[in-house]
Amino acid sequence: MHSSISLYDSYLCKETRAKKQQQLVKKFKTPVITIKAHMPKELRKNGYVAEIIEQAFQSVKQTLSQQGFIIVASDDHKGFAGEERYLAVQCRSASELKKFMMEIENSHSLGQLMDLNVMDGEGKTISRGSCKMSARKCIICNCPAPECAKRHQHNLEELNARIEQIIEESMVTA
Ligand SMILES: [Zn+2]
Question: How far apart are the CA of 51 and the centre of ligand 1, in A?
Fold first, then answer.
């Protein structure tokens, strides 16, 4: 049996996520950050997810407070394969918020394993492209991730080893 693997699959019920995101947007009319782990859904039960989400959350909170942005509400969704968090944020602009989130993804020692999605106050996702940022790079081959994902180049074992390596390195530098 062969199952296809993608780093970029969503691991929780998409409808549940969309519902929670849209509820926040509708109620607060602010941009919404979604914090997820950036790893294959097959590997998300490995216990790293909670740590990645928590570190991402702490980093996001710190950045927001430095910018004077305010979390007006939050929600989360816990499934058997991990957790996601949603934050409604009062800020100057959604694209500016997206840039700060990409800075965390690029600079945090676990940033390669974080997925910090931003929606604007109308519920539209802000893409990297619209902020003139290049696509994420694959954590193994450094190719643009969407291209690599399409080709399904890496097996789970390889990905798991690389994820463990990133986490170990992060503990050394912490
Ligand atoms: Zn790759």
Answer: 24
Mapped onto helix, strand or coil, the DSSP state of residue 83 is strand
Instruction: Quote the longest CA-to-CA distance of the chain.
Output: 52
Task: Give the strands of the sheet with 32-37, arranged side by side.
Answer: 70-79, 82-90, 32-37, 114-119
Instruction: Please report whether residue 162 resides in a domain.
Output: no
Return the percentage of the chain with pLDDT > 70, whole number.
89
Range of the domain at 59: 14-134
Q: Write the CATH number for 43.
A: 3.30.70.260
Count of structural domains within the chain = 1
In a domain, 112, yes or no: yes
% of the chain with per-residue pLDDT over 90:
60
Is 28 contained in some domain?
Answer: yes
Separation of CA 147 and ligand 1 centre (Å): 8
- 140 in a structural domain: no
pLDDT of 3 reads 41
Centre of ligand 1 to C-alpha 141, Å, is 4
Sign of CA dihedral 6, 143, 161, 2: positive
Spacing, Cα 149 to ligand 1 middle (Å): 7
